[in-house]
Design goal:
Belongs to the LysR transcriptional regulatory family. With about 300 residues, the chain is α/β, with parallel strands linked by helices. The chain has helices at about 5-15, 20-25, 30-45, 60-85, 100-105, 105-115, 130-140, 185-190, 200-210, 225-235, 245-250, 280-295; strands spanning about 50-55, 55-60, 90-100, 120-125, 145-150, 155-170, 190-195, 215-220, 235-240, 255, 265-275. Helix 1 (about 5-15) crosses helix 3 (about 30-45).
Length: about 300
């Protein structure tokens, strides 16, 4: 083996940041030492790992091939080091990307469980759309994703965490709020505010309604659920949101769940991770504790 872990760490940091200077800062190396390590690695492997685009570095075909393998080696090396220094193996940082509904209603409880039982673990959390989380996993920005709905990318593993459903809601003063049921023709006449394209909620809603209503009057699209709830509560709009996001507003009388017999919008919240990822005890721990948490809630 002619290459070193340091050279793989340099390669990995440049792949993550797209920049030699940023990689040097991350690794506490000089820029010249970082450039030299990469040059030595490329010379030994006999292949260019990056395509230089000015100061930006984009992975070459060979770099894309090497990246998951380098990640696994570096992760294994970290676990060996922690073991010999007698550190708890469930320590270190786990980067999670979660879509809005689980991030607001489920992930805080999960993090509290982890903090209590595994205090040496650090969890960083970013809230993004389902599409952004999938892209982030594939680009190594996250170790674990928590999404709404399905992911059909063969490069991603998926495990159901729990179930939820979407519901169409209106304000208590909306004309539809007093009806025992609402027809598809009435939905077609309504003015809608919805989640943006790329969100799991929007994907499920669109797939459920597109074959029932040809032309829905979508007035506004927003990323943030509180904006949609407020617009519906104070206006003449309809929206479709996860029940977890509207449950307490329905119970308080601010919003009314409309009965639309034709619409059945069950969905799952799932853990997702890269299929080629090496076994990661932190990921396994969070998945295990998440499933245990749901079992106790039932």
């Amino acid at each position: 083996m002619r290459y070193s872990l340091k050279q793989l760490a340099v390669f990995d940091a440049i792949a993550d940041t797209g920049s030699v200077s940023q990689a040097a800062d991350r690794l506490s190396l000089t820029q010249s030492a970082t450039s030299m390590s990469l040059a030595q690695l490329e010379k030994m492997l006999g292949r260019p790992l990056f395509e230089r685009q000015g100061k930006q570095m984009a992975l070459s075909h060979w770099g894309v091939w090497l990246r998951p393998k380098a990640k696994r080696l570096l992760q294994d090396a970290q676990q060996i080091e922690m073991g010999f220094y007698e550190q708890h193996l469930l320590s270190g940082e786990l980067k999670i990307g979660a879509s809005q509904t689980p991030a607001e209603h489920l992930v805080p409880d999960l993090i509290s469980v982890i903090d209590n039982d595994f205090p040496e673990m650090r969890i960083s959390l970013q809230v993004r759309s389902t599409d952004s989380i999938i892209d982030g996993l594939l680009d190594y920005k996250y170790d674990l994703g928590i999404i709404e709905g399905r992911c059909d990318d063969h490069r991603i593993n998926q495990e159901t965490w729990c179930s939820d459903h979407l519901t169409v809601v209106a304000a208590a003063h909306h004309p539809f709020a007093q009806r025992d049921k609402v027809s598809l023709a009435q939905l077609e006449q309504a003015r809608w505010v919805l989640r943006e394209h790329g969100s799991g909620t929007r994907a499920i809603f669109d797939s459920s309604i597109h074959h029932l209503i040809a032309d829905l009057d979508v007035w506004r699209e927003y990323e943030h659920v509180p904006v949609l709830r407020s617009m519906v509560s104070n206006g003449q709009y309809l929206t479709c949101l996860p029940y977890l996001d509207v449950e307490r507003f329905i119970e308080s009388g601010q919003l009314v769940a409309l009965n639309v017999p034709e619409l059945k919008m069950e969905r799952t919240l799932s853990f997702i991770w890269r299929a080629d990822m090496a076994e990661n005890p932190l990921v396994e721990c969070v998945r295990r504790e998440g499933l245990r948490m749901m079992k106790h809630k039932r």
